[in-house]
Protein: Ig-like domain-containing protein
Organism: Astyanax mexicanus
Amino acid sequence: MRSRSALFFIVHCLVAVSGTIKMDYPNLVNGSVGKDLIIPCSFRVIDDTLTGEATVVWWKSTAYTGPVIYQCSNNCSKSDGRYSFAGNITEKNISLKISMVSFTDTGVYFCRIERSDKFTSQGIVLQVKVPKELRRIYVQTNEQGERWVTCEVFGDPPPNVIWTQPNTVNPSEILNQHGIYSSSSSVPASPNTNYTCQIDLEKQKVALSIYNQESGTLAAACNERVYITVIVVLAVTLGIVLLYLLCVLVNLFKRGHNKPSENDDNVYHNYPRLPDL
Ligand SMILES: *[C@@H]1O[C@H](CO)[C@@H](O)[C@H](O)[C@H]1NC(C)=O
Ligand SMILES: *[C@@H]1O[C@H](CO)[C@@H](O)[C@H](O)[C@H]1NC(C)=O
Ligand SMILES: *[C@@H]1O[C@H](CO)[C@@H](O)[C@H](O)[C@H]1NC(C)=O
Ligand SMILES: *[C@@H]1O[C@H](CO)[C@@H](O)[C@H](O)[C@H]1NC(C)=O
Ligand SMILES: *[C@@H]1O[C@H](CO)[C@@H](O)[C@H](O)[C@H]1NC(C)=O
């Protein structure tokens, strides 16, 4: 708090010395890979009589000598690749928009306004993160034959996984593994227990649940759906066989009661007869 008031004091002194423009911007901006972001920057004209031509410059890495990533004068509306103007000069807003943020956007940014008077911001640090995600939950059996419930998450920095179900999870039994962006949290699975893992996103909590059914016997492996499928397949097969038998019976019945027609005769005797051979 003290350092912030000190900063304010310094900024006020700078305003007093330089005269007319004061800038507002954050020290730090967080961005997420693949998303768009706005680096805010605005100014206040202390002496409101000052108007006229305005030029906006954005540098990366260092002010004045670093690469100019965006520049416009007066009518600022153009975009330059992934950089576009998100402000409004009339409203004294010179914010910059970066589309499709990537890790290479990490760095320090400087905004500058030239309008009767000139002012350049201090560095605005952009941190790029990989958004947090709760990917999946599953039960697996390891080489020792133990069943574990695993919760897979994604993000950099990695999200913190909390097991909210069952309330008997022993924190010392939790096995956490960290990859580059994906990481996982595993707990030993007790039979017939519901497991829920949760992560905190900025504005909400997300959770996934899985029910670890009793395992080991064939009966347990065969769930209701398997039974129903087997029964349906058997029923259909039986139906087809019965239909076939019925057709055969009907044909036999017909043949037994109808006098054979000429046509039938042709069909049955259209082969070389013994005397012809
Ligand atoms: C940016 O992320 C850091 C953690 O990496 C956090 O401490 C900080 O509050 C975030 N700042 C903003 C403006 O979201
Ligand atoms: C500002 O620039 C845009 C695009 O270059 C143009 O269409 C528009 O007419 C300009 N506005 C003014 C007030 O010059
Ligand atoms: C400037 O414009 C940006 C983007 O429209 C907005 O996010 C920001 O709040 C504005 N800043 C001020 C001080 O109005
Ligand atoms: C900028 O702000 C002014 C005043 O609020 C508004 O009239 C104008 O339409 C805005 N310009 C753009 C490009 O949004
Ligand atoms: C497991 O817990 C979750 C979250 O409380 C719930 O939605 C789900 O119905 C439960 N499943 C079983 C089989 O109890």
About this structure: Helices lie at 2-18, 218-221, 224-257, 262-269. The CA atoms of residues 138 and 150 lie 5 Å apart. Residues 28, 30, 127 surround 2-acetamido-2-deoxy-beta-D-glucopyranose (ligand 1) (CB under 6 Å). Residues 224-257 form the longest helix (34 residues).
